[in-house]
Amino acid sequence: MSVKIRKSLVASALVGAFALASSSVIADPLNDLHKAEAKIHKAAVKSQGKIDNVYEQTQELIAEYRSVVDEREIIKVYNDHVARLVADQNASIESFNDQISEIDKTKQNVVPLMYRMIDTLEQFIKADVPFDTEKRLSRIELLRSTMVSSQVTTSEKYRQVLEAYLVEKDYSSIVNATQGVLKLDGRDITVDFGRVGRISYVAQSLDMKNAWVWNNTSKSWDALGDEYLKPITTLIRMARKQASYDLVKLPIFGAE
User: Fold this and answer.
1) Is residue 180 helix, strand or coil?
2) How would residue 21 be classed by pLDDT, with cut points 50, 70 and 90?
3) 3-state secondary structure 34-86
4) Among residues 31, 140, 184, 207, which one has the fewest Cβ atoms lying within 10 Å of its Cβ?
5) What is the mean pLDDT of residues 69-80?
6) Which helix (H) or strand (E) element contains residue 16?
7) Is the pTM higher than 0.70?
8) pLDDT higher than 50, residue 110
9) Longest Cα separation, the chain
10) Taking the domains of the chain in order of start, what are their residue ranges?
11) For residue 81, what are the CA distances in angstroms to 88, 91, 94?
C-alpha cells in the first residue's frame, strides 16, 4: 500500500471520529431541551389544573355570595314587614290600654247609675197601676241580688236592668186578662181583671153583674155603672182570644 493511500485512510478515520464526536455533542443538548420542554408542559398542565380548580372555587363562592345577598334582601324585607306588624300591635295595645282605662272610668259611673235606675223603677212600680205587682217587685229584688254578685259582669248587670225597663215598657201596649181576688170593703171577691196597657184597669165579677175600675189617683177601686158591663166582658174575651179585637167603651181617667 502506498503512502498516499494510508494518508487517505487516516484522514477518513479522523473525519469519522470527528463526526461521531460532533453528533454526540449535539445530541445531548437536544435531549435536555426535550426533557425541559416535557417538564414545562407537565408544569403547565398542573398549573392549568390549579387554575381550573381555583376558577371552580371562585364560581362557587360567587354563587354562594349571590345566594347570601338574595337571602339578606329577603330577610331585610321580612324584618321590615315584621317591624311594621310589631309597630301596629304596639299601637293596638296602647289603644286597648286606653280603652281599658276608659272602661274602668265608665264602670265607676255606670254602677251608681244602675242603682239609681233600679230605685227609680221600684218607685214607679209602687206608684203604677197595681197589676202583677208582686211579680214586678220580685224582678226588682232579683236585680238587687245580681248587683252584688261577683259572678256577673258589669255589662250583664246593665243588660238585665235595661231588660227590666223594656218589660215595663211593653206593659203599656198589652191587652191582658187574668183571674184573681179583689179585696173590697173587707171582702174577697173573685173577679176577672182586664187591662189595656196602663190606660184602663178594670175588674168584673164572675157573674158579670158588677164591675169596677182602678183609680190610680185615689189608689182604690171605683164601682162602675151597668153600661160598662158588656164592654168589659168583650174586653176580657178579646184578651183571651175568644173574640176579635174591636172598639169597646171603657172608663179612662184623664191625664194629669
Assistant:
1) strand
2) very low
3) HHHHHHHHHHHHHHHHHHHHHHHHHHHHHHHHHHHHHHHHHHHHHHHHHHHHH
4) 207
5) 83
6) helix 3-127
7) no
8) yes
9) 200
10) 89-173, 174-256
11) 11, 15, 20
